[in-house]
Each structure stands twice: as structure tokens, then as C-alpha cells.
Amino acid sequence: MPVQVMLPMVVTQTTVLVLDEVIIEQLQQLLLQFNLQLQLVAEDHIIPGSYWGDCEAGLIGSHIYARLDTPVHSILHEVSHYVCMDDVRRDALYRDAGGDDDEENAVCYLQILLADHVIGLDRGRMQRDMDAWGYTFRLGSARAWFENEALDARTWLMEAGLVSADDSITWQLRR
User: Fold this and answer.
1) pLDDT for 116-171, tens place per residue?
2) Looking at the domain assignment, is residue 54 inside a domain?
3) What span, in angstroms and rounded, lies between the C-alpha atoms of 172 and 7?
4) The three-state (H, E, C) secondary structure of 17-79, written as one string
5) Angle CA(166)–CA(171)–CA(175) in degrees, nearest 5?
6) In a domain, 103, yes or no
7) How many domains would you assign to the chain?
């Protein structure tokens, strides 16, 4: 049984941190550590490769697509999908990252860890943004899940070589 299910919601821009509110160059450097490119999309354009549509980040190959109104949690979620998938899926990647429930939970966990590496964001803000956007967890919040129920996701990431025992990111891709 999956720990969480992501449900897209319409949320005002002031509710969650969006790309326009962070240092884009710093975020681009973070993505480069995973050989990912952040591609900015014009405000009035559809985001290529977006699974949910609207302002949600898109993922095609090694490119993350986003507009200035794209939530940073959405960008880091797609980054985490890219990191957690295997090479076969990564090579054919277009929009739908796929994966099973265990991998999806690992993606959410890694997304929270990555938040500590974005100026203006941290784990607490990421967890609040995830809750505000509509991620749902059995314990009622992303924070409660992360602190009390995410051992399986953490173990998955450790076994894949993506985080160390102290939750440090290894900056590697799953092979």
C-alpha cells in the first residue's frame, strides 16, 4: 500500500514557493549535479513534458521544463524522479516517469532532502508546500510522514546509493 498519493490542486502562487522566488542560477547548478538542464518556458506557453499540466514542471530526457510560476516543489519532484529511475527508463523518458509505489515514496523523500540545497527553501518549507499543493499522507502531513513513517523510502534511497546513512545526498543517479 503506497504511503502517499499526489493529487494536483489549484493553489494561488503565494501559497507555495515558485521558480520566480528563488535564485534560478543556483537551482540550475543544483540540477547540473545530476546532468539535468533547467529549461525556462515563456509565461503564456504550455510546459512541455508536464504530467499534470498547468504550471507543473515537465520532464523530457535530461531536461526539466518550468515557467516562472512553476512551484519549486514540482521541479524538485521531477528531479527526484530522474535521479531515482533506472537507466532504461531514463533513456526513454518523456513526461511519465513511471515507477512503483516504493520508488514514488523515495522520490518524495529525496525531494524533501533536496530542499535543503535551494536558497530560500528548506525541508520544513518543502513539507508545507507539499501539503498545500495536495500531496496526501496517511499521517496527515508530509512532515509527519517524513519523520515517522518514511523509513522504507529512506532505505530504498540508501540501497540505490542515492543517500548515505546520515541522509546526505550522494549526487549520483540510480543505475
Assistant:
1) 999 999 999 999 999 999 998 989 999 999 999 999 999 999 999 999 999 999 99
2) yes
3) 28
4) CEHHHCCHHHHHHHHHCCCCEEEECCCCCCCCCECCCCCCCEEECCEEEECCCCEHHHHHHHH
5) 105
6) yes
7) 1
Residues in contact with 135: Cβ distance below 8 Å, sequence separation at least 6, in sequence order: 4, 5, 6, 7, 108, 142
What is the rounded distance in angstroms from the CA atom of residue 78 to the CA atom of residue 95? 9
Q: How far is CA 63 from CA 46, 84, 137, 173, 174, in A?
A: 15, 15, 29, 15, 17
Distance CA 147, CA 12 (A): 27
CA 92 to chain centre: 19
Length of the chain: 175
For residue 8, being part of any structural domain is answered with: no
First to last CA, the chain: 25
What is the span of the domain harbouring residue 68?
15-159
174 found inside a domain: no
For residues 47-60, average pLDDT: 95
